[in-house]
Design the sequence.
């Protein structure tokens, strides 16, 4: 008995070792292929330089749909199609913000209207600025104090979090709610300090939301240093602000998410890898989320190029309209439900094309622990963090259907310097960092495909 | 007995927990102080923008000595002094490289002479280019084939390593040996493809060495894309290269490393944290190694600011002449030996101001394992890698004396895009990444100071 047990353990041990070794060899092949022959960086150059930013509803977005369709075919997808999505159309138009100090003329400030905000209809709207630095300070203001004023929410992005996404979440309520908070106390429009980890003059746009049954007043963002200067000015004097903007919602439009897949050799259950194809209407949407798009295409290309025999269908989804509606993600989830398509796993890359540090896991304990058991395989690639955490926005409908969801976790230090700004350009993306993200996602999908 | 044992274990457990908790609270205080109030980023702006690059022997280097002295005083050092170091003086001067194709005129190539290389004495030196892509190809060339020719070492930086330092080490021999290899077979000068992870036209300088008793011919570097173009041209035709350069060694000079310390409260044994103050004579020496200098000063500042009661002396060393001689490091080691100063630990930051991922440990097993036992404390700061590995160049003399040495390991993906080039500027450094490196070093020194 002892001997038999010994032999069994030995065999078991060998099998386990064999599997790990085989996986580690496969991990290495994936890495070599992507780092040496990866197309993701050049794809990103095309997307950002030939098309540029691509807000939902824009002509550029429609161009990017055609581009992604072609790229998926070039990467070797067995099947490529467009998924119809009704998307909201928001247009910025001309905009300007000026301030007047008690003893001077008008001075122009760098600004961006927040996404989904209404404008002033091309008319000047002006009033005295009142500053609050927190929600608590806002709560203390009476409607009399705010009436006909401009509310300036000067809440600084907290530098103290190690992961900048925590700083972003912490400050995000100011962006989403400033307009309605202003309107509820009778203010004319809201100015917010940008959700930015940088100390510069770059305004960051991003989605805001109007509360139901509250007047829709405009909301705009200014850069950190402009906010600091304004705060100093407000210490000694009354400041008038004047906004003129043409932005606003222009109804809805039929558009598309782009989907490509390689068919499963064993069954048709689906593993999703994706990013969002749309971006804000400034900069080039390079990190947000051109990176996620080209990485996802790279995953498919690498499976085909290496001839990996995928058991299940590997599907790339380039989601429409993540930035100001998440209509692509919602539509994808709805379609999965309608067609009753079995999904094994879904991963999104939507946190920038920086060097990967981990993969956030949003699924039940058993599955999460199984994946965490593979972590040693990822360590040589600098990927060590497999925390339970929020998965990508576009995947939430899938997550809510009980499908295990995940998100690539790149280093977060630089993201909120350039997020939703003119600075989110191709030049800010490093080739190796971008490709290593694709390596980690390909490796993870290889493991899921093999073991689930 | 059982009960007593139980109690002991409980007390031991509580003490251990208490210590960890206390440490984790202290780690958090350090991080908050540096991320919220850190001066390192502004210090780096001063060093790079007011002084700029600062090669050993230059006036700028002497300015940086004065600057570092003042910064250490401002940071609260109890004692600041200059350590005399005799340094080699290498000067670049004017330089140009042209090529002539069989049917065209002369075309100028972007180039940099390698550091420590001799020039052409301001005269044109020309000859036909022969390309080799590896040492093996070089070995196969006969002296007859090389005589009076220009040897072009076109060895490409390997993209396949995950840590780019491995790619750098792999390619480094071409930079250090190309000139003597060329001379030994009768060639006139050497051109190397830059040790670069980027696919651009930026030449990278860096130290080369002449073998004893071999003619000192010049060696220059060209950027990756220029090297690729030259390779294509050489397929169809003979190409002549013409070099004109004035670089060369100009003897030695007395200069200084800069040292500042806070005195140990318990004893005078020393913990060193440092970087090198010199840089190459192009760009601004921001990542290499302005980052290491300002991070080291930040460590001292943070100890003082938080009132941490350091048991041992914490000493910042800004080493002279790392880039082309390591005379500062050697002199420091020599002085430690002469004065018989007890050193507990030394850590250098000289791998760029990128987000930290680990601390390389170069010491005996017992000490290394003790440090590795602290790794959970570092994990929330993104610092997870405590491998046995080479410590900083300047610390080698200390390491050889048996002193435990370490080096900060930042993310390496972007470093060799800009290393030793015009592109190594302040703009390439991210404030948070830089400061997180200082956080990790301060935390490590806090642990060493407390436990050793």
Sequence:
């Amino acid at each position: 008995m002892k001997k038999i047990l010994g032999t069994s353990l030995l065999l078991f041990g060998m099998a386990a070792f064999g599997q790990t070794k085989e996986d580690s060899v496969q991990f290495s092949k994936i890495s070599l292929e992507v780092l040496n022959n990866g197309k993701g960086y050049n794809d990103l150059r095309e997307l950002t330089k030939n098309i540029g930013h691509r807000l939902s509803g824009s002509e550029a977005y429609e161009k990017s749909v055609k581009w992604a369709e072609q790229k998926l075919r070039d990467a070797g997808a067995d099947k490529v199609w467009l998924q119809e999505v009704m998307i909201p159309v928001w247009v910025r138009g001309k905009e300007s913000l000026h301030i007047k100090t008690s003893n001077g003329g008008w001075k122009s400030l760098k600004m961006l209207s927040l996404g989904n905000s209404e404008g002033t209809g091309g008319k000047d709207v002006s009033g005295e600025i009142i500053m609050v630095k927190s929600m608590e300070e806002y709560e203390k203001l009476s409607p009399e104090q705010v009436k006909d004023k401009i509310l300036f929410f000067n809440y600084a992005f907290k530098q103290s979090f190690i992961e900048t996404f925590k700083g972003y979440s912490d400050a995000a309520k100011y962006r989403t709610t400033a307009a309605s908070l202003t309107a509820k106390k009778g203010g004319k429009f809201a100015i917010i300090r940008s959700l930015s980890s940088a100390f510069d003059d770059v305004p960051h746009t991003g989605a805001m939301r109007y509360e139901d049954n509250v007047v829709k007043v405009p909301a705009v963002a200014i850069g950190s240093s402009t906010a600091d200067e304004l705060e100093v000015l407000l210490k000694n004097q009354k400041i008038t602000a004047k906004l003129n903007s043409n932005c606003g919602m222009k109804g809805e439009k039929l558009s598309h998410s782009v989907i490509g897949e390689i068919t499963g050799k064993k069954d048709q259950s689906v593993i999703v890898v994706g990013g969002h194809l749309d971006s804000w209407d400034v900069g080039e949407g390079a990190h947000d989320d051109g990176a996620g798009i080209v990485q996802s295409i790279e995953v498919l290309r690498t499976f085909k190029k290496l001839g990996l025999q995928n058991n299940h269908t590997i599907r790339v989804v380039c989601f429409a309209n993540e930035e100001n509606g998440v209509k692509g993600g919602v539509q994808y989830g709805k379609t999965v439900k309608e067609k009753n398509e079995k999904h094994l796993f879904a991963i999104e890359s939507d946190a920038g094309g920086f060097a990967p540090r981990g993969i956030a896991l949003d699924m039940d304990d058993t599955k999460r622990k199984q994946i965490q058991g593979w972590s040693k395989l990822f360590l040589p690639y600098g990927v060590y963090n497999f925390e339970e955490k929020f998965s990508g926005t576009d995947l939430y409908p899938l997550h809510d259907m009980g499908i295990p969801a995940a998100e690539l976790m790149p280093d977060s230090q630089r993201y909120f310097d350039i997020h939703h700004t003119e600075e989110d350009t191709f030049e800010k993306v490093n080739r190796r960092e971008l490709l290593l993200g694709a390596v980690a996602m390909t490796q993870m999908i290889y493991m899921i495909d093999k073991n689930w």
Notes: The CA atoms of residues 39 and 128 of chain A lie 53 Å apart. Chain A touches chain B at residues 31-32, 35-36, 159-160, 162, 164, 197-199, 355, 357, 380-382, 384, 411, 413-414, 417, 430-433, 436 (CB under 8 Å). The mean pLDDT of chain A is 95.
